[in-house]
4-hydroxy-2-oxoglutarate aldolase, mitochondrial (Takifugu bimaculatus), 1312 residues
Amino acid sequence: MLLSRSWRAVSVLLSEGLSPAWKQTRNHAAAARLDLRGIYPPIATPFTPQEDVDFQKLEENLQKYAKIPFRGLVVQGSNGEYPFLTEEERVEVVKAVRRSLPADKLLMAGSGCESTKATIQLTQKMAAAGADAVLVVTPCFYKGKMNSPALVQHFTKVADNSPVPVVLYSVPANTGLELPLDAVMGLSEHPNILGLKDSGGDITQIGLIVHKTKTQDFQVLAGSAGFLMAAYSVGAVGGVCALANVLGREVCELEHLCVSGRLEEARALQQRLIEPNAAVTRKLGVPALKQAMEWFGFHGGACRSPLQPLTEAETQQLRRDFCSNGWL
Amino acid sequence: MLLSRSWRAVSVLLSEGLSPAWKQTRNHAAAARLDLRGIYPPIATPFTPQEDVDFQKLEENLQKYAKIPFRGLVVQGSNGEYPFLTEEERVEVVKAVRRSLPADKLLMAGSGCESTKATIQLTQKMAAAGADAVLVVTPCFYKGKMNSPALVQHFTKVADNSPVPVVLYSVPANTGLELPLDAVMGLSEHPNILGLKDSGGDITQIGLIVHKTKTQDFQVLAGSAGFLMAAYSVGAVGGVCALANVLGREVCELEHLCVSGRLEEARALQQRLIEPNAAVTRKLGVPALKQAMEWFGFHGGACRSPLQPLTEAETQQLRRDFCSNGWL
Amino acid sequence: MLLSRSWRAVSVLLSEGLSPAWKQTRNHAAAARLDLRGIYPPIATPFTPQEDVDFQKLEENLQKYAKIPFRGLVVQGSNGEYPFLTEEERVEVVKAVRRSLPADKLLMAGSGCESTKATIQLTQKMAAAGADAVLVVTPCFYKGKMNSPALVQHFTKVADNSPVPVVLYSVPANTGLELPLDAVMGLSEHPNILGLKDSGGDITQIGLIVHKTKTQDFQVLAGSAGFLMAAYSVGAVGGVCALANVLGREVCELEHLCVSGRLEEARALQQRLIEPNAAVTRKLGVPALKQAMEWFGFHGGACRSPLQPLTEAETQQLRRDFCSNGWL
Amino acid sequence: MLLSRSWRAVSVLLSEGLSPAWKQTRNHAAAARLDLRGIYPPIATPFTPQEDVDFQKLEENLQKYAKIPFRGLVVQGSNGEYPFLTEEERVEVVKAVRRSLPADKLLMAGSGCESTKATIQLTQKMAAAGADAVLVVTPCFYKGKMNSPALVQHFTKVADNSPVPVVLYSVPANTGLELPLDAVMGLSEHPNILGLKDSGGDITQIGLIVHKTKTQDFQVLAGSAGFLMAAYSVGAVGGVCALANVLGREVCELEHLCVSGRLEEARALQQRLIEPNAAVTRKLGVPALKQAMEWFGFHGGACRSPLQPLTEAETQQLRRDFCSNGWL
């Protein structure tokens, strides 16, 4: 199923019901130039023992992150437990981060919901709360119907109605759905869609996305530290890496080695990051990320239920994955 | 990973943080006897052209359903597009159905959310809105962490805090997650958990669940008309069937033939329902269900975005699947 | 992708290169009437400690099976470890079984290979060795290319060149491939294709196959005891059940209860067979089947490498699955 | 499940039944030093119109390949249609290649079978036919039982009894099975196991394998041109690439750019190879590989049945994937 490569054609295709607000009201040429290059931790959300958002601890984490050469922060990504927060909490957390974040750092806020309408509303609230860009995950409950036309329609409507640039977000481990290449190609032509965070990690697909969107200045971010160097090798421009919540300087150092062509050093560092990264993502998830944050001087704490604390055996496995690579 | 079969043991295992409110405050012996036997359509939610809930059309559908020998209705199941509704809309729809529904019919309301806390809150609102029981889907975004202990913890807390009985809901096609047998076995011992709607359709698993929960009066409902007769053969007691929105009398007739042992007639009818059922579920989804409803005298209409209307080719395929089995 | 329903059309479609030998040389009307109804154990292959086929032990098993009211035996099914045998061994085992088997019992021999050519050759050898019918598994190594046209072509050529009737064999757990409905429908019209052994266990699909091949006298066999009763309920005519190697009388009793409409007794027996069946198939595989055979008075013994003996923990789990259902 | 990292421990674990012939009879220190670095086409097998191996055309292809700076050839890989060849044919093809191949090029022969015994026998025949090393695919029919201990046992026995070094081969798209990391780690310590051809393409896993086998001089080869540059970036030493049958010089050029650190040129070339590579592998398979070979001056021709020729639409798609990247 080939999408028209011309944005004009896509517009016609999708014309009914769309109000391309961006055409009159915003300077999208500027938006399109927002430079995403660099490393972003998708920050965790600390909770109090009563499972309320702990803004004090969040603020303390932010002050520590301010000393690390991140390009910015992702707020309300999967590692922020956004599906467990109310809409109000999601917006409040973004506001709190905005107040604390230095002006030269980007705030990318997750604003994806299942319905297009809810996503647009939350996107606009996130922009009002100070987000520089929004990260919009693929809707996924009706995955059997989320083919390219449906996804193109969804993201186009959101981008048309977003006051800030949009970054697409594909995370198959959580959604059971990969954003298809033809949808990415079509969407890359939208002036208010900047790029893609790809957490799927299919490096062939990542290389192909870079190749097929070359004329669009479309920016691809690796969605995990596990394949960061490989993603740079095929043309990605940065990474949104859970592990950067824990080993932020090291992930930034890997970025630096990759972009400056110091490949042997990069390779050695990359290899030492794979197991800790897998431990705090695929293998043991957000509870492990938060546990590891505690070990490295950040506030992690408990997750909201139904996410459970690590068992003793899991904690030991987590420690081993950091120790055996020389991080603990 | 074997769960203790004894509810006492499960209670001890899960004791910390649980407030088994039901122990003091409700008559769960009564709750446990709520008889679920029969057929339930998981009703669709009609929308206006502006994508608002169309309560007028909903009411007209309900009046038609009142003449069909359903055991009750499921409100806010997957076919009700609940992930696209706000919490307020979800509750309002339940209230509207309650006002219309004859007193002898059960109202089972979907109240599942990703977090335990939100699920408990919505469960209590659904009970207040008049639900006789709640249908609670497995949380699924963090599917890698939704193992049996996490799911047992989640459903136990919900059941502990629910004023009405709970029915578990496993729908892997949407959630990417199957509720494991050991979790079902453990949860079947909770006095406020009545049964399971299984939409996975693994008939061996369904038979085993019936077998392993035999002492608990645990009631299994087939989650689709496609395997309804097979599910009866291995011990299910009813069905929540999307197709019953369209061919309600016929699904009830199939139930009747199954429970009265008229197997040849049942088989012939079951076979004619498989393709129409697949068309409005797995193959073409909710938009097809709503289209077919229109053909059979009900209000279907459009879905909320990002669900797209059927293409012309899909509409023809849908029609063929009804025609070739003699329904159109 | 719809296949023509008319055999004439299929023939034209596939005409090049096909030599429909059956048209002139055999009485396929007779072949088509071969009645498959009943239960078949897919017999295990005993080995000596040196991993040679142990024909003596095989013979002793056969004498015990002769006293059980099986319809026949499947030789060289998945449970016979056929992928580990040479072509010569496969044929020799069939010859040995033929010598021993009473004349009124069917011998169905597995003759599937990856290439069409090799499958035809082995099919003809199996017929010469005394097979009444052949069971032909889907080729699967190039699974990405095994779409309906390729599979229809393959099975058509095999059936055209087979001196005995062909039974299709779909076993996704081993092949990673399900024989698609449209291919089954097309192939059901071939006069030398009798039916299908379905080990996938998708009961909706099984019901639909029965429905869509109704005019062809196409016979569906359940490929596992786990869903035997459900398969009967939707129109299957028998079963090829690994568990029948161990609990042969009981599986035949379940058949008897199903076909005579004694549903409550059937259900109770079916439920007690699910766990033992899962243990000797999906969960623990052929080594468990052979271990359980030893417990019930048959020769099982070791598998060929790389299949490993059960660990102690696995043996205990296997025993539990028989004990907790009252079989040990 | 952690395997002992020490080969001694593995030996003890696996001791029964193993005859570590290599300990006495061969100079494995030498074997371990066989340098695999470079590019290998897994050559296709040309057939005559009667589906016999066409040795004449094979020879003509080999003469053309001799002019390309390959490190060697893989004979009887998946692209050689080995599952469709008899054992005799498999050996004859290797002999034919050996006669033609310049002495300084490596001949790696596929010798994997389902059983350990058959694999050992074919391995020895391949060595006798002139193979410098053997490529041994994971057995896969009983995939549910092919856990790490079974696979370690299998490959250890094969390596113990092989006169030439062994390269492991993991190709999940065909086998439905990924060789687990712990098995690779254990096997990397065997003196007669040189490395791994990884066709799965999980770049994080590839990086981790390189990292965890660092002390063993274990050599990882990318199993596809689609992720060749990424694999080099994380430490692979070469590639076995179907596309090298068609664009051999270009794949070798990509290797050259990668190892000499000319990353921008490498990236541009890599990106242009992804679509043609996908077309001749995952998307359209061996028939497409053979069609593309024809376009580029090699003998491709038809596949053995059940592999079907490309449809007209597929041929056009294949052509587009080469044209749009500037290769046709």
About this structure: The first helix of chain D runs from residue 7 to 13. Chain D is about 45% helix and 10% strand. The interface with chain C takes residues 51, 78, 83-84, 86, 114-118, 139, 141-146, 149-151, 153-154, 157, 173-176, 282, 285-287, 304-308 of chain D (CB under 8 Å).
